[in-house]
Amino acid sequence: MDVKEAWVTALAGGCAGMSVDVTLFPLDTVKTRLQSEVGFSRAGGFRGIYSGLPSVVAGSFPTAGLFFCAYEGVKIFGRGYLSESWDPVLHMTAASTGEVTACLVRVPVEVIKQRAQATRFPSSDILRETLRTEGFRGLYRGYISTVLREIPFSFIQFPLWEYFKKTWSSFQKSPVDPWQSSICGATSGCIAAGITTPLDVAKTRIMLAETGSALSTGSISFAIRAVYRENGMQGLFAGVVPRMLWITVGGAIFLGVYDKAKVVLSSALMDTS
After folding, report:
1. 142: nearest Cα among 67, 211, 84, 197
2. Residue 143 has pLDDT above 80, yes or no
3. pLDDT of residue 22 exceeding 80
4. What pLDDT score does 16 carry?
5. How far apart are CA 113 and CA 130, in angstroms?
6. Which residues contact 132 (CB under 8 A, 6 or more apart)?
7. pLDDT of 272
8. What are phi and psi of 142, to 5 degrees?
């Protein structure tokens, strides 16, 4: 990937991330409050539905930009050594690399965002309090659980997205348009979201846990067992409907905007060169 391709990828990914996170933020707030240990109503219900938005605005652009730079970089590198039959494995590896990289920015954003959603305190106050009581390390509480949630999700979503696009392209005998990529993204995201909801519940509980509690240690297996003991399978799939809805619509916006932005930005760079 040359410098121009990297800039196009980063900017297109950033535009995609910002678009989906800002547009669907209220639905994400509802999902977080449904998964909160104190319950939906005590976490705020439908009040202050945009609590935590500033942290998302600050973090979504670089997070998505980093993800797609890593994702496309691994794909380009792998295609120099692997045949087309290895594409699913290549896409899984690329998505996993992208998630590990993006989580360096995503996790601090998620910690502040979810605490703001669950408490309705301003993001700036929560950031200061987190740094005061937990230090810089507190911003990365749940990093492992987030990565362990995102990698299985991406293992499912991105190979499916690429497969759906390839199948559609073969059927119509031409590359898919951004709107078609958007539909493929919605479908693959919906499937991945439903399957990985228990991991998302565990991640949310860890991020919202009180400092010093057993949950705050970040053990995803402990969190899953704790949720199951409290509420059974229903607890593990708390918020599954808004999560699937969020990611179905989000997948359509995210991957559709990404492909469209790549076309527009590539064209603009060619015109200026």
Report:
1. 211
2. yes
3. yes
4. 92
5. 12
6. none
7. 63
8. 90, 5
Arithmetic mean of pLDDT, 87-113: 90
Q: 91-113: buried (b, 16+ CB within 10 Å) or exposed (e) per residue?
A: bbbbbbbbbbbbbebbbbbbbbb
Tell me the helices (H) and strands (E) count for the chain, helix number first: 10, 0
Q: How far apart are CA 18 and CA 141, in angstroms?
A: 23
Token pair, residue 63, equals 């997070």
Residue whose entry in the numeric block shows the structure tokens 């990937």: 1
> In the chain, at which residue ranges do the beta strands (DSSP E only) sit?
none
The rounded distance, in Å, linking the Cα atoms of 46 and 67 is 31
Structure tokens at 187: 């479908």
User: How many angstroms separate the CA atoms of 79 and 98, rounded?
Assistant: 17
Please indicate, yes or no, whether the overall pTM of this predicted structure exceeds 0.85.
no
- State the residue for tokens 């639905």: 27
Phi and psi for 59 in degrees, rounded to 5? -105, -20
Quote the pLDDT of residue 71: 95
**Which H or E element spans position 193?**
helix 178-195
The span from the CA of 206 to the CA of 143, in Å, is 10
The amino acid at 254: F
From the list 250, 262, 96, the residue with the least C-alpha distance to 176 is 262
Which pLDDT tens digit goes with each residue over 239-255?
Answer: 888 889 888 998 999 99
**What does each C-alpha distance from 148 to 143, 160, 205 come to in angstroms?**
9, 19, 14
What pLDDT score was predicted for residue 78?
Answer: 92
For the record, the structure tokens of 252 come out as: 């359509």
| DSSP class of 176 | P
| Dihedral angle over CA of 235, 238, 241, 243, nearest 10 | -130
